[in-house]
Amino acid sequence: MTLFGIPPAGMRRAMAPENGRDHAHAIAEAAHAWWTSNRGGSSDRAIAVGTLAALALSAPSRPDGPDYGPLLLPLDDEQLVDTLRAGWNSFWTYDPDLTEAARPLHDWLSHPTDNDIRGLADYARILVRAGLLEYCSDPARAESDDVLGLLITRMRGYSERQSTGEFFTPAVAANHMGDVLFSTDRRPGDLFLEPAAGTGTMARAAAATMRFFGTDPAEYRWWLNDLDPLNAACCAVNAQIWRLGRQVTVSCGDALRQPELLEEAVRRRAERAVTEQQSRPVLYPTRTRPAFWPLSDNPPTYVSP
Q1: Paired residues of 6 in beta bridges
Q2: Cβ(47)–Cβ(106) below 8 Å
Q3: What pLDDT is stored for residue 200 in this prediction?
Q4: Using CA of residue 169, residue 170, residue 171, residue 173, what is the dihedral sign?
């Protein structure tokens, strides 16, 4: 039996591409196709990518986890927006600094227009049908490629990337670099710094290599930086999708010319975010309490607005 023409989780897992990289491309292609057909070109890309990011964070923490599809599929546009806010509220409780770094992906939720939310429920159903929840709930599958980066690449197009000089490292090349990285000794607590991270695919490759050799990426420190605010925001979400742990710093700025100024800005942002979260536990007013906790088996106490 299907709901809104979308099969249950078990069937979606069975229907998903066997290869994680193929699955990531299928999700990004489905998302881009719907957006260009229904919302026009690459407009509102922060909403398109931000909605995908929020749903990715809502995936269960393990492949055999509960199916959240039935909670998402019946929603209309306004109800989905309320649910997206609830998801970011959870992330805000879990890690206020990374939530602040991800603000370009969710700031539109503070005052969305009718056009902003038009068709979002249908868009979410497309993502669920493509197996986004199943993709993100399986660490091995999720670290195969960068689904957020793939969608951004499609939405920016070749000419825009040429004009900005932006180039996203293909997954295969990033995986090779990850293997080279671990040809030398690395110890827990070491810092992995990527000054031009894009959406973080080099960190993804490094984390995948660590797991292959039996090492937990959460034992290391990560600093992902990019000049583009939307790219940096995706790094903050990807850090959770790829299970990089709690020692993750995300920044947006020129890490090569003025690294000391960037470090100071990050420190101040983290302090402000923690202070604000303590005084304002709920980031966005919402009527929805999420039935999930993003990628964690131990959710903190949720504070209702």
Answers
A1: 3
A2: no
A3: 94
A4: negative
